Every structure is written in C-alpha cells, then in structure tokens.
From TrEMBL:
Species: Calidifontibacter indicus
Name of the protein: NADP-dependent 3-hydroxy acid dehydrogenase YdfG
InterPro entries: NAD(P)-bd_dom_sf, SDR_fam
Similarity remark: Belongs to the short-chain dehydrogenases/reductases (SDR) family.
Molecular functions (GO terms): oxidoreductase activity
Signal peptide: none
Keywords, sorted A to Z: Oxidoreductase
Amino acid sequence: MDVDGKVAIVTGAGAGIGAALAQELVSRGARVVLGDLSPKVEEVAATLNEAAGDSAPVAVAHVGDVCAEAVIDDLVRLADDTFGALQLYFANAGIIGAPGLDVSESDWDTSIDVNLRAHIRAAKKLVPRWVEAGEGYFVSTASAAGLLTQIGSATYTVTKHAAVGFAEWLNITYGDAGVRASCLCPMGVETDLLYAGRETGDPLGVAATNAVLSAGEVLTPQHVATIVLDAVADERCLILPHASVLEMMRQKTSDHERWLGGMRRYQASLLNDSR
C-alpha cells in the first residue's frame, strides 16, 4: 500500500517506535492520529505539525488507554472526523511485564490487554468496514520474542506469541478481501522498553535486558519505522528489522530440543553474569 494521502492511527505514539512510525508516515504523505496513555503524545503531534508547516494539521493526538474499546472508538472517530476515512491502524503500544512465574493475575490481565486484546478490539472495529471498502491495513507490533522466546518475562513471551498468531490469522482470513496485515518482530530497539528488565532489579529481568543487548545490533526507532513502512509498501506480513531473527527461527524449528538446551545454557550464562 502506498501511504501517501492515506489516514493512519498509531498507538503507543508518545515515544519510541510509535513516535517514529508517526513521523515516517507523515514524511510519506499520510495524516496520522497518535494515541498514547502519556500526554507526551501531544508534544509529538505538535512537533510533527510544526515541522510540516501546513495550515491544516498533519497529526492530532488523543491521550487515553489505547487498549480500551472506548478509546479505540475515540481514535477512529477522531481520524474520520479530522482527516477522512481511516485506512491504516498501527497497534504498537506494548509493555514488557514482570519477570518470572510469580506474576499476579492482574499483571497477566494487563499484559494480555495491552499486547494482544488491544489488537483484537481494534481489528473487530475496523476489519468489517475495510472489507466493505475493499482496502485496509492492520500492522501489529509484536517482537522477536513472539517468534523465538523471551528470557525473563513469561507475560511478554506469551502475549507476543499470541500477537504474531493473530496477525497471521488476519492476513490469511482477510487478505483476499483487500485487508492486509503485517507483524513487526524486532529484537533490540533503543527505547525505554529495552531497559525495563534492568529496572526491576530481578536477576531474570536483568538477564532479559542483557540477552537482547547481546543478541545483535540495537536499532534506532527511526530505522525500524523506515523498515516497517517499506514493508507496508511491499505488503509483506512478517517484518524483521534484524535479519538474524530469520536464521534463529530456522535453528529453532530444525532441532527444537537442541535449541531449548542452547537457550537454557544461554540463560544460565546471563544469570551468572548478572550476579
């Protein structure tokens, strides 16, 4: 899909990949609604409008919990009323979750809501209208952890696997009806989320951050956003900013038991280094 002249929503747009996606969309001629729980999203929208220098806005912001159905409704309404019919939705908001197995039911619910149900709720609202229009694009931000696994956080691993599965299902089920679905699965990206594990002080959390930092190059959000929009232009489903993830997937599927053993050894070395 050519995003020039299109209308998009980006969640988690107050910083990191979300803010970079909004910037890249605007640079390619799109008009964007930015959603985030943080008021910083208003600053991002203001910066985009100032840079554009147009009399009419190229970006508007909405502060709210983007995994709530009412807020998703507000975002879609804002897009339709400000810019016209919405064609792209970037379900980008995410959280890392607490490390280990001793995670409360409430924490599990929050991770599932943010990392998965937010995607489902947005798709339920948008896909039927896109099928009717014959065109639409849903882009979800998952993680390489959704294809491999995440040392440290079970909630992150499980919900990101589910997000990948949902994106694949959307692509298969509605691709022939004009609705495209892509899934972003990066490793290390220079965002606050990358260092969240260290902030917990938990050995598994520290190991989680160190695992990502040692696994490959840490990319800038801007670099990732460029890769994502190039993939949207080509209508590719699986978006891998780190090419090494594809080889890691092949190693996992070619000899699963060996891969699991290697991951256990890797985790042990990281835990030893974090002590």
